[in-house]
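Re: weekly structure request thread

Next one in the queue (509 aa):
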Amino acid sequence: MGRPRRVAAVRCQDHPDGHVVSDGVYETRSGRRRRYKCTPPVGEPHRFSVVVTSHGTIARGWSPPPECPEHPGSRVVRNGVYGKTTAKPRQRYLCHPVDGSAAHSFTPVLARDHVHEGHERCDECDEQRGVHHGETTAARTHSWNTRLVAEALERLSRGDSYAEVSRWARRVTGTDGKRIRRVWREGDLVVPDRSDPSRQRRNGWHTAADWVEAFAPVVFEPVVARLWEQARMERARLDALIAAGKPLDRPQVVLLDDKPVYGRTLDRAARRDDGFYLLVVAEQLDDGPTRRPRLRLVRAMPKSNMFAWRLVFDELGYEPDVIVADAGTGIGAAVRAHFDPSRTKFVPSMWHLIGKVEKTLAASPRATVPSATGIKLVEPLHEHLKLLTRHSGALDDERTWGVWWDELETLAVRHRAPLDKVRSNRKTYEPAVAEVLDIITTHPDVPIGTGGLERLMKRLVEPMLAGRRHAFGNLERTNHLFDLVVCRDHHAFDNIAHVADLLREDVRA
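Done, posted below.
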């Protein structure tokens, strides 16, 4: 009497009530497989096989093979690997059509890395990966996986340079080794190819730069669509209040500022000819019981003039109730030319006014005193500038606003400051602020300065420029890069898995 067959721990998918017994183990290119014999209550016996681990246990079946796009419902099995230049081999599949036609190999729309059963864990859930669930590629012809690109975009949004992110990607994938070009004759190898190891370092930044151009719009579009829809709904609500003759409870507020970006030559001289401007737009959004500014647009433009700002306003896509910005630049002219002044009010930034007055007064030696942090204004002038707040009384009405300027001129004469420059600032700011004093006094949630935007720029925008102001030669790619900064301010990178899903969905669309 022979050894009895061991009862299998699996069921036949075609005959759940069939009698299944094990029938040996064999090796295939897709891994070790165990064969089973199924004897159904009705019909002829047949055999099937399943993948098993190196310990002989049945491989977990939560990741079925992908479906063949040409033959839905066909039987699909793993069929070796391909990809000599990729960080990991890619999985190929074999399709056996149900109509009996010839079998053929295929790869999914998004190819996946090959997975050795029981030897690889998911970085996100720390569970072992299924054999059909390796990391997907970022795109059909890309050699980098989706999660790596998503993490790279997050690093770029923090201010890491293109070169730093490219080196990181090659390091974590093990592809940072020196590549040797095959030549057939000694004369075909030129000298720079033999002894120029820095060339790869100089050109390596293109990897991350290409990712920004290809994938930043995929992450940015859902964010800007959500912000635009929120702004549209809020605009409709406020327009209904205006139509009913009711006062606005919380006006829509947009803050504007610009930042010149100029590189330097090797001798540290400024290169103004190759510079550009960053035009920054922030929205005052609800953050619980309070409101705070959030980045909405950051656009690199050759100049910060009326025409450039009007392009940015077109991209903004709606007319806010209040715009807060510096009154002494092209921003004010752009606002007056683009928006209806009866609907959109322009509030000059007190933050900029204080800075300009301080710079004017500091030209007089009698108006400044040394301090531990440098030169500062004498106490009377310093205290007078501190009155540019809502609760000091200087902005209560046109009379108090004019008195503040009269007192400033008196102090300027007393400390021998250039009175003509003080009066020039007064000519610009006094009438502009007087027009919106009613908004300043009746809407305490409307900021009277761009200090909040300045802090945003210092925290999110300026780190992008540190040590690389000279390196932004492509303005379109630079705009995509700063789109990632906007996404970061709106928490788009809090969940890297969600970013990876966006990239996959875009390729499959």
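The radius of gyration is 33 Å. The chain is about 35% helix and 20% strand.
Next request, please.
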